[in-house]
Amino acid sequence: MMSTPPGWVVGCLGGNLAKQRTGAAALALPAEVEADHEHDHGHSHGAQIVPANAKEAAFLSLIYRTFRENDELKTAYQTLLGQTVKALLRCLEERDPYTYGHSMRVMSYAMLIARGANLKESDLRNLEVSAMFHDIGKVGIPDCVLLKPGRLNADEAKVIMQHPTKSAEILGIIDAFKNAVPGARHHHERMDGEGYPDKLTGTQIPLASRIILVADTFDAMTSTRPYRKALPVEVAYAELERYSGSQFDPEFVKVFLQEHKKLTLRLTPEEAADVLKKAA
Question: For the domain with range 96-280, which CATH number is right: 1.10.3210.10, 3.30.930.10, 3.40.50.300, 1.20.58.1480?
């Protein structure tokens, strides 16, 4: 069954809602409201300013209730967003278990690259969503193509190449994921402009997409499929280096090789997989 998604979901792309509590202590709260606040949160904020009259007390009480209602809405939003992520992941898992597992590994590799490259927090969160759902569009690909046990012919390849735009369309429906849409849409673009869907080149390609392509390709090469066996890790390393600059962003290839080799040198495969899972 599907594992619980990482704990990023609350704050992804919209700010860390769990940390954005607005303190009512800055207001001059009536004594009974302050007491209620202390009861709810288990602490006092010190000296209280007594309102001058009943109107002021009522006004401050209204403001305090508004803050509390906002907190409740934020909690509800957090819960809904988490449920949305779980639902999308479950949908992907039910549609194609391989694509689900692949997406989780790509997310882990992408985050390994991002942390090695010291990306800022907002980029990390956008990347995480983009990587996790980069292949969600495959739910719209016919079984005869998606689940074909052999290699695709030219017409079938054109069909499968529609999945990045489908992924972008699905993510674009969710307001909280809109900043992750470009990363998903362009994860098959190449540095030399020979990728798809828009034939972008170099830094025209979103940063998240350039990272995902390295992670995506490495996992594809090192995974066994019905039509071929997994390549040894060293061979996959060599392929990334071979196409660095033409297909892949050289900087992110360099970071990935550096960070992934650190894991494989000092850890068993099981330990490395556990580290990657936690990093995501």
Answer: 1.10.3210.10
